[in-house]
Amino acid sequence: MALDRNAVPNDLNAFWMPFTANRQFKKAPRMFVAAEGMHYTTADGRQVLDGTAGLWCCNAGHKRPRIVEAIQKQAAELDYAPAFQMGHPKAFELANRIIDIAPKGIEHVFYTNSGSESVETALKLAIAYHRARGEGTRTRLIGRERGYHGVNFGGISVGGIVNNRKFFGTLLAGVDHLPHTHLPENAFTKGQPEHGAHLADDLERIIALHGPETVAAVIVEPMAGSTGVLLPPKGYLEKLRAITKKHGILLIFDEVITGFGRLGSAFAAQHYDVLPDMMTTAKGLTNGVIPMGAVLTTAEVHDAFMQGPEHMIELFHGYTYSGNPIAAACGIATLETYREEGLFERAAELAPYWQEAIHSLKGLPHVIDIRNEGLIGAVELQPIAGEPTKRAFQAFLDCYDKGVLIRTTGDIIAMSPPLIIEKEHIDQLIGTLGDVLRKLA
Ligand code: PLP
């Protein structure tokens, strides 16, 4: 029987949706049934411009032929190979291709299936790295306020989002947090703020409090995406690098959002010219099409584990789906699409147009800040007194009704379109948001 692609299930009860207002959604569902290029198709047949690259992941847009074909072909050729003690060529090929575009000094790839798993992997690697080198006292981890590092226990511990932490008990110990990098005096700055590098100095205080010999790693998003596009002030990341290096502490960049072209370079580490010891990635690695993540490391981190008898497993960590053949094929086709279409360069070229477009919203009702970098931007709204998040959520619903997909976090509207976006789409996206803001209560 042919499937009616406009059909939606009558009973939406069984699926407990993640990070969703389930009851609100199920009363008025917003369903996508197809996607191509810059657009989604809704169940009622409308076209919606994708202003968010799905969830910051479809950097090459949707239904890209090379990716679709690679997945189909791989499924028919080798569907699965055991991830432990066995291999298949595409996992090695993809790792080489990732290293080709990674910053010089990053040499190894450990596969995961998501950003959250990449974070857990990197945190475990950091602690085990020090232990392998005879510094087993280094177990403490330092994150940052308003950081998002996924939803597993390690990630919510180093993360700095109150709602993601406070409901989940007492496993969050052994962790400190740097202050976030959002300073009110930097409101409406275009791109990276000049002021605020001093915020990194707090790391010296935290290290002194515990002793450097107890600290394993510092993890930050080079540019914090999920809590509303918080940029690193000029000189800030350089300071974090200098302080961590001085005390023998590993620096981890969580590049789950910033990786694969979002800022106009392959990775934020290149955009900001600061080399971490490890980088966590996911999302754009496979254009969001098949779940896959990866932790990228320096040779120094990797080589610390390559000791002992050669027949012994060096690292007791990994996932059934690490380097899964279909995900690997998808990753190769994705990186090939980025390269062939010059999408990272395209993001850099479009960034000034994007910047001017988004900052044109300054002065509209409720707008208290606008931030941008690469093809990423945020518009912060004054919350309704006593009803935080409600105003931005209404803007999201109104934009959706008018055929544009944005994202909200608290009262911040975040946008991160696919890197294939055209100027007319930018005009439509920002124009629609402007119309919505003008009418918003
Ligand atoms: N780290 C960062 C910086 C992210 O933005 C995200 C997701 O948005 C994650 C980790 C978690 O990724 P996932 O949802 O794939 O587990």
Automatic annotation (TrEMBL):
GO function term, MF aspect, one: transaminase activity
InterPro entries, A to Z: Aminotrans_3, Aminotrans_3_PPA_site, PyrdxlP-dep_Trfase, PyrdxlP-dep_Trfase_major, PyrdxlP-dep_Trfase_small
Key words of the record: Aminotransferase, Pyridoxal phosphate, Transferase
Cofactor(s) the protein needs: pyridoxal 5'-phosphate
Entry-linked CDD domains: OAT_like
UniProt keyword Transferase, yes or no: yes
SUPFAM superfamilies noted in UniProt: PLP-dependent transferases
This protein's record includes keyword Oxidoreductase: no
Family listed: Belongs to the class-III pyridoxal-phosphate-dependent aminotransferase family.
Protein's name in the database: Aspartate aminotransferase family protein
